[in-house]
């Protein structure tokens, strides 16, 4: 009886959610997420429990915490019914181990390559020398994973991360010139969380109740291996899979207690944009982006996440009876539309268990906020995103150029300046634009002015199909060359990337 009443209430809730759905999403959807070519073997959903990537211990503590990570092949069991998948992982793991850093305390990571030069290298014993980038971090140019700053042929490189930025949910990932898509797809990505002792005082859910959900889509061969192909379809749309994994498990279930949880939802997919909802239409309380906490919590029934965007949310399971199952869904349409049935619709399932003490809270003020100051004199730059057809297939461009390491930077920014960057998308595809070094504020999307405090600090924003968006940032902290690019990894590898330079 109780369950029946709950079900009725839940369906009423989802109708309400339907009415609240932002229309913006639908208009951006037309060209997004074409289905992949080929299909994975059948895999039953929700059979494996969620795993949490292990937190790495420093190899050496001191003024800086030193970590040592090898890039090496490994085998990962990703679903009950799949043979182990050969991966390339940080420490041989998929996803990589999590690094936990503290604001203001420097970290040095030695990345050592034990990966064979698998592609294009005729010598089977040659190693490959990847570049590693800490996505969302404020670091010096030589530590930023620029393709010119890769692991050297000594096989290792020390990257310095000062962590002089707000508490954040970052990712370290491969950034090898022209092969980022291939490398990340095979597993070279992991979490890097910056913690801030001041923000610990806020009382947000923590420890066992602060859970990362790193979401990726993959296409599998029957033998369990990843099927990666840079064919016409993927050159166009990016590499899309037909199975969703969370923390390296295909569509897991996760047993939760009846209390509040903080979830750091991270889209680490090559190309897929997610439109996340709870199956009963209940809202998420978003408390942060990847770059920082929001000034105030924002309640939303739909969380849109482009590649390498992050959303920090709280879900309260205390209203649900033990035994309730809630599904985290991915669908841009209404909750029960016919499109909501493919395997990429289902991300994971929460299984509500017993009660647990909960003294956590979501304060109304989370972090301080100021809009970046702009005037009529503020430098505004425009970048045009286009595609072209070449004899080898589709290529992607910024201001008429595909990326080459010796291209002149497309912008020279004076150190300390606030600038507005407008991205004009002249293609029918979504392009999630990422700028290295800085966190930006959102000015407008398709000319519609945005309240930047609602969006928070971001480092990826989608330039909508045949539309445009503008962001504003202060370029400060270091001088030198940094990248900006489309974070659809195939678009990035196929040219949609450029350097900018910060000059004294
Ligand atoms: Cu997460 Cu240049 O990338
Ligand atoms: Cu980055
Ligand atoms: Cu793109």
Please give the order of strands in the largest beta sheet. 11-10-9-13-18-15-16
- Bound ligands: CU-O-CU linkage, copper (II) ion
- Tally the helices: 7
* Portion of residues within helices: 10-25%
Please describe the biggest sheet, giving its number of strands, its sense, and whether it closes into a barrel: 7 strands, mixed
Rounded to an integer in angstroms, the radius of gyration calculated over CA atoms is: 22 Å
Low-pLDDT ranges:
1-32
Overall mean pLDDT: 90
Class by helix and strand content? Answer: mainly beta
How is the CATH topology of the largest domain named? Answer: Immunoglobulin-like
Total DSSP E strands:
31
Please give the CATH class of the largest domain. Mainly Beta
What is the molecular shape? globular
CATH architecture title of the largest domain: Sandwich
Strand content: 35-45%
| Name of the CATH superfamily of the largest domain | Cupredoxins -  blue copper proteins
Work out the count of structural domains. Answer: 3
Summarize the topology.
Blueprint: H1 2-20, H2 23-29, E1 65-76, E2 85-90, E3 99-102, E4 107-113, E5 132-135, E6 156-161, E7 168-174, H3 180-185, E8 189-195, H4 197-200, E9 210-218, H5 232-237, E10 243-246, E11 249-250, E12 253-258, E13 260-267, E14 274-278, E15 284-289, E16 293-300, E17 303-305, E18 310-316, E19 325-330, E20 346-355, E21 379-390, E22 393-398, E23 411-414, E24 418-425, E25 431-435, E26 441-445, E27 448-449, H6 452-455, E28 460-463, E29 468-474, E30 480-486, H7 489-493, E31 497-503
The chain binds CU-O-CU linkage and copper (II) ion (2 copies).
């Amino acid at each position: 009886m109780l369950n029946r009443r709950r079900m009725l209430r839940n369906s009423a809730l989802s109708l309400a959610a339907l009415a609240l759905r932002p229309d913006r999403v639908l208009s951006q959807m037309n060209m997004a997420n074409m289905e992949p070519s080929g299909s994975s073997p059948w895999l039953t959903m929700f059979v494996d429990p969620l795993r949490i990537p292990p937190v790495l211990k420093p190899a050496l503590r001191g003024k800086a915490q030193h970590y040592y990570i090898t890039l090496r092949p490994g085998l990962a069991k990703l679903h009950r019914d799949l043979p182990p998948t050969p991966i390339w992982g940080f420490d041989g793991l998929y996803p990589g181990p999590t690094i936990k850093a503290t604001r203001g305390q420097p970290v040095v990571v030695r990345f050592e390559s034990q990966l064979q030069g698998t592609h294009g290298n005729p010598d089977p014993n040659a190693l490959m020398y990847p570049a590693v980038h800490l996505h969302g971090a404020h670091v010096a140019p030589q530590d930023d994973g620029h393709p010119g700053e890769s692991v050297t042929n000594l096989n290792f490189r020390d990257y310095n991360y000062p962590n002089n930025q707000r508490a954040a949910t970052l990712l370290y990932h491969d950034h090898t010139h022209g092969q980022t898509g291939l490398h990340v797809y095979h597993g070279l990505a992991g979490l890097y969380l910056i913690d801030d002792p001041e923000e610990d005082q806020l009382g947000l859910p923590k420890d066992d109740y602060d859970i990362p959900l790193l979401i990726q889509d993959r296409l599998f061969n029957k033998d369990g291996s990843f099927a990666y192909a840079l064919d016409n379809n993927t050159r166009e749309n990016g590499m899309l899979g037909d199975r969703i994994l969370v923390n390296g498990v295909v569509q897991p279930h996760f047993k939760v207690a009846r209390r509040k949880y903080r979830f750091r939802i991270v889209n680490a997919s090559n190309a897929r944009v997610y439109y996340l909802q709870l199956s009963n239409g209940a809202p998420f309380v978003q408390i942060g982006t990847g770059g920082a906490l929001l000034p105030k919590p924002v309640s939303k029934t739909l969380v849109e996440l482009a590649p390498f965007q992050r959303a920090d949310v709280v879900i309260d399971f205390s209203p649900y009876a033990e035994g309730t199952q809630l599904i985290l869904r991915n669908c841009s349409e209404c909750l029960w539309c016919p499109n909501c049935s493919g395997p990429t619709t289902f991300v994971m399932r929460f299984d509500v268990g017993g009660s647990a003490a909960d003294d956590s809270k979501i304060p109304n003020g989370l972090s301080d906020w100021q809009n970046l100051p702009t005037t009529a004199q503020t430098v505004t730059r425009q970048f045009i995103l286009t595609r072209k057809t070449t004899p080898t297939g589709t290529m992607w461009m910024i201001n008429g150029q595909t990326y080459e390491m010796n291209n002149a930077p497309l912008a020279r920014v004076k150190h300390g300046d606030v600038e507005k960057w407008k991205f004009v998308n002249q293609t029918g595809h979504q392009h999630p634009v990422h700028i290295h070094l800085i966190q930006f504020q959102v000015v407008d999307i398709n000319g519609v002015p945005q309240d930047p405090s609602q969006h928070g600090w971001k480092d990826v924003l989608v330039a909508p199909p045949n539309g445009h968006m503008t962001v504003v940032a202060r370029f400060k902290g270091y001088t030198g060359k940094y990248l900006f690019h489309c974070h659809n990894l195939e678009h990035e590898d196929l040219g949609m990337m450029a350097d900018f330079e910060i000059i004294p």
